[in-house]
Amino acid sequence: MKKEILAWESAALLTATLFTLNSCSSIPKGAKAIQGFDKEKYLGNWFEIARLDFVFEKNLNNTTAEYSLNDDGSIKVVNKGYNYIKNKSVASTGKAKFVGDATEGRLKVSFFGPFYSGYNILALDSDYKYALVVGKNLKYMWLLSREKTMPEAIKKDYLKIAKDLGYDTSALIWVNHN
C-alpha cells in the first residue's frame, strides 16, 4: 500500500513538473505572435527601452540583449546590464528555441538548465529595428530597439497593443542608456 501511494505521488509530481515546464513556454491569453518571422534578421544587438520589472533585472540600466546562432540551431541569448545600486556590470547567457514553426515569433528561453519561459514577439517593424516582446503572462513585457531610443509613434502603437491585452503599461521601467 505504501509503495502504491509513493508511486502515485511520484507520478503526480512528474505530471505536475511536465505541465509546469510545458506551460512556461506559453503566451498570454489573446496575444498572437508575429508570423513570417525571420530569425536571421532578428539576430544581433537590441537595446531594452522599457520593461515590466522583475527580480533578474532589478536595478539595471543600460540593458541589452544580443542574439546569435548556436551550433545546434538554437539561439544564444546574452543579456547585459549595469546594476546602478551595486555599481557593477552583470551578464547572463541563455538559449532560446522555437515553440513551433520557426516562422512564428514564439520562442522559449532558458537561463537555468531545463527551465524555459515564453518569449513572444507580438510586434516587429519590417526592418527589424523595433520589437514588442512579452513573456508567458502579463508580468513580462519588453520594448526593444536597435538604437538607444524608439520613435514615439512606434512606442505609442506597441503600448496600445500591450494595454489592449491587459498589460499595466503605467508600471513600465524606462531604461536609461548612458
Automatic annotation (TrEMBL):
Leader sequence residues: none
Presence of keyword Membrane: yes
Lipid-modified sites (N-palmitoyl cysteine): 24
PROSITE patterns: LIPOCALIN (PS00213)
UniProt membrane topology term: Lipid-anchor
Record's keyword terms, sorted: Cell outer membrane, Lipid-binding, Lipoprotein, Membrane, Palmitate, Signal
Reported function: Involved in the storage or transport of lipids necessary for membrane maintenance under stressful conditions. Displays a binding preference for lysophospholipids.
Name recorded for this polypeptide: Outer membrane lipoprotein Blc
Lineage: Bacteria, Pseudomonadati, Bacteroidota, Flavobacteriia, Flavobacteriales
